[in-house]
User: Which sequence fits this backbone?
């Protein structure tokens, strides 16, 4: 019997060790919200436009530095209301809408996110996020200098700010870029694989 305990005990210890290791939880998925971090840029001034004369399509082109998924779309505006947010594939000759959602804020200056069915995005591919709105926060540098792109924020490479007046009320990804001001009012929640 003593021989049996000496032979079996090490195997039981190994089995217990493997059970403990396999029960350890994986690290929780890190949710990255890259565009909203631009509100924290240094030496900026923010002009709040509650109602512009025109409706604009505006947003950002970006590329993931790792493959992953977009789990949510987000917005933050200086008014309450419902606005169309669109995630774009920018890899072809014309932008292709991947997901378009109306997001609603019950109060001004409120950050809103809405779950979407996880959209897989590939490392190094180009995507866009835009909002169709007549309201925004306009951010400029206090010294009048330009914002520099590309800008790495976590696992996202922000490639530039895009804007254009929209007279159709149909969402489109704007082709015009602007590096002297930006409006970080729309965002994605990215989870790297």
Assistant:
């Amino acid at each position: 019997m003593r021989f049996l305990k000496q032979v079996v005990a090490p195997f039981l210890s190994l089995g217990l060790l493997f059970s403990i290791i396999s029960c350890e939880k994986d690290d929780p998925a890190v949710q990255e919200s890259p565009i909203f971090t631009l509100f924290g840029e240094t030496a900026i001034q923010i002009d709040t436009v509650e109602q512009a004369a025109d409706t604009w399509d505006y947003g950002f082109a970006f590329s993931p530095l790792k493959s992953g998924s977009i789990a949510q779309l987000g917005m933050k505006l200086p008014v309450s209301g419902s606005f169309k947010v669109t995630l774009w594939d920018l890899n072809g000759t014309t932008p292709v809408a991947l997901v378009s959602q109306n997001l609603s804020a019950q109060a001004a200056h409120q950050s809103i996110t809405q779950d979407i069915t996880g959209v897989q995005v590939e490392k190094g591919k180009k995507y866009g996020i835009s909002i169709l709105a007549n309201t925004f926060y306009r951010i400029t540098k206090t010294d009048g200098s330009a914002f520099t792109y590309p800008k790495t924020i976590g696992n996202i490479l922000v490639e530039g700010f895009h804007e254009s007046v929209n007279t159709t009320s149909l969402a489109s990804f704007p082709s015009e870029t602007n590096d002297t001001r930006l409006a970080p009012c729309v965002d994605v929640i990215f989870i790297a694989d």
Summary: DSSP finds one helix and twelve strands in the chain. The helical segments are 2-23. Residues 7-25 have pLDDT under 50 and may be disordered. The first strand starts at residue 31 and ends at 32.
